[in-house]
Amino acid sequence: MAAVLGLASAKEWSTWHRKEPRKPGVPPRPDRTYKGGGWQGWGHWLGTGNSSHPGKHFLPFAEAQAAAAALGLASAKEWRAWCSEGARPAAVPSCPERTYKGGGWQGWGHWLGTGNSSHPGKPAPKHFLPFAEAQAAAAALGLASAKEWRAWCSEGARPVAMPPFPQVTYKGGGWQGWGHWLNTKQTR
After folding, report:
1. DSSP sequence for 57-86
2. Which of 92, 94, 74 is nearest to 84 (CA)?
């Protein structure tokens, strides 16, 4: 229910809850009521995906931006719609303009790789290898799982031509799962 109200913060929730007639079964402080029992933060409760600790668990800007650019989205509106579909990896923020403000953010054109940037002259977004080449390179690494892939990516050894989120980059273009990507035959 909370996600459909269009509220963006704990403060807005508190204001709404005080103004509206008491709803049966809807706690005024869900963060306390559900603590230890499913509470995942205000961003989860309100459906915004925002974190009270921006940047704490997100990828470095360059990696997150590369993943965003690989999606082929054309605008902030398309980005928000994509985020609301539930396909966004947890390590990529839903509100990059806040998370990376002062730390790489150069506008939606740069984030999405459309070139519609308020910073002309910046290099074009990186392009990834074709699926077959990238998959062969990934399989040659000898990694056994998606968890090992993420760890390898976070070590900083990943070439810029290899996508950090191959499941997003190659969705509909060769992606058949982690077992295929890493040549392990696993399904997760």
Report:
1. SSPPHHHHHHHHHTTT--SHHHHHHHHHTT
2. 94
Joined tokens for residue 20 = 């509206």
Q: Using CA atoms, how far apart are residues 66 and 72, in angstroms rounded to an integer?
A: 11
Count of structural domains within the chain: 3
Is position 20 within any domain? Answer: yes
CA distance 140 to 145: 13
The single-letter DSSP state of residue 113 is T
Each residue's pLDDT tens digit, 86-144: 778 888 888 888 888 777 888 888 888 876 544 344 343 457 788 898 999 999 999 99
121 inside domain: no
Q: Which two tokens stand for residue 83?
A: 């985020």
Whether this prediction's pTM lies above 0.70 is answered by no
Integer CA distances (angstroms), 166 to 15, 46, 95, 104, 179, in order: 42, 29, 21, 22, 12
Structure tokens at 16: 């709404």
Same domain, 103 and 135: no
